[in-house]
Specification:
mainly beta, Porin, ten-stranded antiparallel barrel, three-stranded antiparallel β-sheet, 3 helices, 17 strands, elongated
Length: about 350
């Protein structure tokens, strides 16, 4: 029977296209142990460990909206598929562990060494060469007496691949007055214990037409605003620690940019400058029973209700430079974006008018 955290990361892998997250049964088993940490400690650990994933996926969803600043002529359209690869910086590959920040974790030992009160611990995207074992110690009441619970929990090392891939497919529709409507839509896909859906909408508008004298300048310029949201839910019913648990994931990205481009025969050089706003949420809902043993050998099982509710926020300025090749109706494009997590984008599409 799979552990609940194996299912959590299977959900992440399916919902967010990171197949490697569900590749190791032991990784999921290790994560179920993290819930033994008391108070907010488990959430703090998970926030530090998986936070870079949500940031990288969010900035990836904010990319791929355009490969030119020139809107379609009415009623032109395009169908474009892009893959974005966000690079996790060094500060997203490790986090600083300080025992003083936790109420039930006294230290961490790495690669079999002695426990330390401070250490650099790998995140999900760490280099993969440092195993960290958390030393838990806390008090539990049992049959009217207080006992000490000591436990060691392994926090898996990173994957050694500091990149977050995000595929995006969208339809662009040319409207009157130099306006494009852009749609990203994946109807809800559901199985017995899993569902996922995605929706995105964007608008690109040529603003040169409204500025006297600017219309004759030999380049295209537009404004863009785009919003994408992915939602996924997974049932953990039947796992060894819950009968009614569910996991919920949502990631939303909002981007607003000023775009410019210049067409040179079959090539188009394009760029954009603006900002992103990324919001993500990870929840574990339901009742979970975590096995633990007190210092006298007695059971000190922990029952948790809705143990995880994490909100991740990021964003900031961004700048993009790219190149598009158009052969009849076929388009190929690639660009590079400097932002919180720098991102490479490549894609292919069909564009008419």
């Amino acid at each position: 029977m799979k552990s609940v955290f194996t299912k959590v990361f299977s959900c992440l892998g399916l919902a967010l296209f990171i197949v490697v997250l569900s590749s190791k049964e032991s990784r999921g088993q290790d994560f179920s142990e993290v819930l033994k940490a008391q108070g907010d400690d488990a959430e703090k650990l998970l926030e530090n460990y998986v936070g870079p994933f949500f940031t990288g996926f969010g900035v990836g969803m904010a990319n791929g909206w355009y490969n030119t600043a020139a809107p379609h002529k009415f009623p032109g359209f395009d169908l474009t598929v892009s893959v974005n690869l966000a690079s996790v910086p060094q500060e997203g590959q490790v986090f600083k562990f300080n025992a003083s920040d936790y109420s039930s974790i006294s230290g961490v030992s790495q690669n079999g060494g002695a426990a330390q009160s401070t250490a650099d611990v790998e995140t999900l995207f760490g280099p993969g060469d440092t195993e960290s074992e958390l030393q838990l110690s806390y008090q539990r009441e049992y049959q009217g007496q207080t006992y000490t619970v000591n436990s060691a929990v392994e926090l898996p090392s990173g994957f050694g691949f500091p990149y977050v891939p995000t595929p995006v497919a969208q339809l662009g529709i040319g409207l009157p007055k130099g306006t494009d409507l852009k749609l990203r839509l994946m109807p809800t896909i559901a199985s017995e214990d899993f569902s996922i859906s995605l929706f995105g909408i964007g608008v690109m508008h040529d603003f040169k037409q409204w500025i006297p004298g600017m219309k004759v300048l030999p380049f295209d310029a537009s404004v863009l605003i785009g919003y994408t949201k992915l939602s996924a839910e997974n049932s953990f019913a039947g796992s060894e620690i819950t009968d009614d648990g569910t996991g919920e994931i949502s990631v939303s990205s909002l981007t607003y940019q000023i775009l410019v481009s210049k067409k040179l025969s079959i090539l188009t050089v394009y760029g954009g400058f603006g900002a992103n706003s990324i919001k993500s949420n990870l929840k574990m809902l339901g009742t979970y029973t975590i096995e633990a043993e007190a210092s006298n050998g007695a059971s000190a099982d922990i029952e948790l209700q809705d143990p995880v509710d994490l909100m991740f926020k990021s964003g900031g300025a961004r700048a993009t430079i790219g190149l598009r090749l158009k052969l009849a109706i076929l388009t190929l494009h690639g660009d590079y974006t400097v932002q919180k997590y720098n991102t490479i984008t490549a894609g292919v599409g069909f564009s008419v008018r």
